[in-house]
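Q: Please design a sequence for this.
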């Protein structure tokens, strides 16, 4: 089965939900989505660190994969305030989100740092979800494509073809994210996903490169989720605010699933 025969839908709860809120959210989401075949849907949630352990006890990974919002590239050492891959493994999480725009632009992470995190995640058997995207300034200079290529070529620099089979990418234009974000229109997003896919094919070959899921993120909402998912190059959605209530997230899941099946001709 190709990886792209599934739709990838997930949310990063950023620095919002407490342990209790996360557990309540996951229970509700688990209940609402219990009947949806996981052959068709890869559903994931990326809560805050403090909620991860309880989150893992709350839902089974066959139904909802869990991710960490960040991770140190070293296993242990003098890295006060950092979280090791071993600690995340101990909890039993699946995905490591790497290079979210808030990590890059508020915390000052560079492509080189993301590269180390991607390699460490792979070494420990996690799925790295590498987030990339241009700023508004870069978009205005018309260098978005170059920026995306650099972020991929540096971030995935040490990744082998074999390892590329477990990578996911999120395209999240910085100008589209958060309360002040303007969502990218579906045509623009699809075009950039095309650039990303071409770059992945150039790096890992046609078979492996074209099978890497590329998700769109940045002000996804109930209105734009459908047109986005209809686009050929958009394999899933990485949602913030619009997914933080389980019922709202479920409505988006329900609305995009049939469109995805139609697009991939799955009956
Ligand atoms: P948003 O967040 O949907 O609230 O814009 C997206 C993200 O940061 O991944």
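A: Design:
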């Amino acid at each position: 089965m190709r990886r792209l025969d599934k739709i990838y839908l997930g949310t990063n709860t950023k620095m919002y939900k407490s342990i209790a809120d996360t557990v309540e959210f996951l229970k509700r989401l688990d209940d609402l989505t219990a009947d949806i075949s996981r052959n068709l849907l890869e559903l994931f949630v990326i809560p805050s660190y403090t909620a991860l352990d309880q989150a893992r006890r709350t839902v089974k990974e066959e139904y909802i994969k869990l991710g960490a919002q960040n991770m140190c590239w070293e296993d242990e050492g003098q890295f006060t305030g950092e979280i090791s891959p071993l600690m995340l493994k101990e909890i039993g999480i699946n995905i490591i989100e790497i290079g979210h725009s808030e990590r890059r632009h508020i915390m000052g992470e560079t492509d080189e740092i993301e590269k180390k995190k991607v390699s460490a995640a792979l070494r420990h058997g996690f799925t790295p979800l590498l987030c990339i995207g241009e700023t508004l300034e870069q978009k205005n200079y018309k260098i978005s494509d170059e920026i995306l290529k650099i972020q991929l070529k540096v971030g995935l620099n040490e990744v082998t073809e074999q390892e590329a089979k477990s990578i996911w990418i999120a395209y999240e234009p910085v100008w589209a994210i958060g309360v002040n974000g303007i969502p990218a229109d579906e045509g623009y997003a699809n075009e950039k996903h095309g650039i990303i896919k071409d770059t992945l094919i150039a790096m890992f070959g046609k078979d492996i490169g074209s099978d890497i899921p590329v998700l769109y993120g940045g002000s996804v909402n109930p209105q734009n989720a459908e047109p986005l998912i209809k686009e050929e190059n958009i394999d899933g959605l990485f949602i913030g605010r619009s997914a933080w209530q389980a019922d709202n997230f479920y409505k988006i899941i329900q609305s995009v699933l049939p469109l995805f099946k139609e697009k991939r001709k799955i009956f």
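Q: Thanks. Anything notable?
A: The pocket of 2-phosphoglycolic acid is lined by residues 12, 172, 177-178, 181, 217-220, 238-241 (CB under 6 Å). Strands lie at 7-12, 41-46, 65-68, 95-98, 127-132, 168-171, 214-217, 236-239.
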